[in-house]
Design brief:
two-stranded antiparallel ribbon; alpha/beta; Rossmann fold
Length: 350
């Protein structure tokens, strides 16, 4: 049975849940000319049947999101005569959907695109919301555009192709959605475990977690597409997380870096907004339960700070953090000095 969640951005589109993603891909191919942006790794892991498909292969993960790859794909599109009425299809994790969306935004001043996310992180976060982009030399997603897809198509069977590490990294974004907007997500995660969620016994719970997480993002994006207000709440854990991800040279998964950022933000919430200790401990418990890191190198804060100064929430010499007053009640907090952050970082990482 196919079901969908609506997202109102610069146009209305749907996140569609299906149990036959390759059948849906062939239906789309029969309707119009498509160019698929994916990676060799994605093809191998998902069993994508490539016969008759027009493929443009890019590196997997964050390696795709650089200027050299961008130029090579622009050249590919020019060589293959991709026109404004054609369709770009992204098949892959969040990095590939970010990248392919940016290609679609910039080619011929904007062509339509569709996302088939193949990772849990891509399903619940990266492919939904219309943020596209590549990484700059100094930080993650510094070059980009708002360019929403025509549709996002999710087949949860693809989650079974993920390693435990990649599955857990995706759960970091699910956990984030629970803390900022939907405590029912946290309850389901508390009552389940990794082994169950990765088995047939946990299929219903995983489907509900994915649906609820997409619904959280869809609602917030629909209210504030260009991030002038509440959409910033989706960055809970991401200000420090992006800096850590960049510092690790993307050896850490996005979700692993965000998990450390969630732990740090929860600590700041306790110190500065009165978040209760039970909610802080719930952050620790869930991140530990699903094999996500809590700490990073204690000696690198100055390097992380230089990256955070490039964050979009850095204004007038202040790094603005998304913090929780209580579960489900996030807010932007702008009263932290860099000394405050340095002190809190050492408290958390020691």
């Amino acid at each position: 049975m196919i079901s969908a969640i609506a997202v109102q951005s610069e146009h209305l589109y749907h996140v569609t849940f299906t149990d036959s993603w390759q059948d849906r891909l062939r239906e789309i191919q029969a309707e119009r000319k498509i160019l698929i942006i994916t990676s060799r790794e994605v093809i191998n892991h998902t069993g994508l049947k490539t016969e008759g498909l027009n493929l443009c292969l890019v590196p997997d993960g964050e390696l795709a999101k650089d200027f050299a790859t961008l130029k090579s794909v622009w050249d590919f599109l020019e060589t293959h005569g991709v026109e404004r009425g054609d369709l770009i299809v992204a098949i892959g994790g969040g990095s590939i959907t970010d990248f392919a969306g940016f290609i679609a935004a910039t080619w011929l001043r904007g062509v339509e695109w569709i996302a088939f996310p193949t990772t849990l992180a891509g399903m619940v976060d990266a492919s939904v919301g219309g943020k596209t982009g590549i990484n700059g030399t100094s930080g993650k997603n510094l070059i980009g555009s708002f360019h929403s897809p025509k549709e996002v198509i999710i087949d949860l069977a693809l989650v079974s192709t993920l390693s435990d590490r990649d599955f857990c990294a995706g759960l970091a974004e699910v956990i984030k959605c629970g803390f900022i907007a939907d405590p029912e997500i946290l309850r389901i995660l508390q009552e389940s475990d990794l082994e169950t969620l990765r088995s047939d016994r946990g299929a219903e719970a995983l489907a509900e977690l994915t649906w609820r997480s997409v619904a959280v993002k869809a609602k917030i994006v629909s209210e504030d597409f260009r991030e002038s207000g509440s959409r910033a709440f989706l960055n809970y854990g991401h200000t420090l997380g992006h800096a850590i991800e960049h510092h690790s040279k993307y050896q850490l998964r996005h979700g692993e870096a965000v998990a450390i950022g969630l732990h740090f933000a929860a600590h700041l919430g306790v110190k500065h907004l009165g978040l209760d200790r039970e909610s802080y401990q719930l952050h620790r418990d869930l991140l530990n339960k699903y094999r996500l890191p809590l700490k990073f190198e204690g000696s690198v804060f100055e390097s992380l700070l230089s990256v955070m100064r490039l964050d979009k929430k850095y204004q007038d010499g202040i790094i603005r953090f998304v913090l929780l007053r209580e579960i489900g009640k996030p807010q932007i907090f702008a009263d932290l000095t860099e000394d405050d952050l340095a002190s809190a970082y050492q408290e958390v990482m020691s």
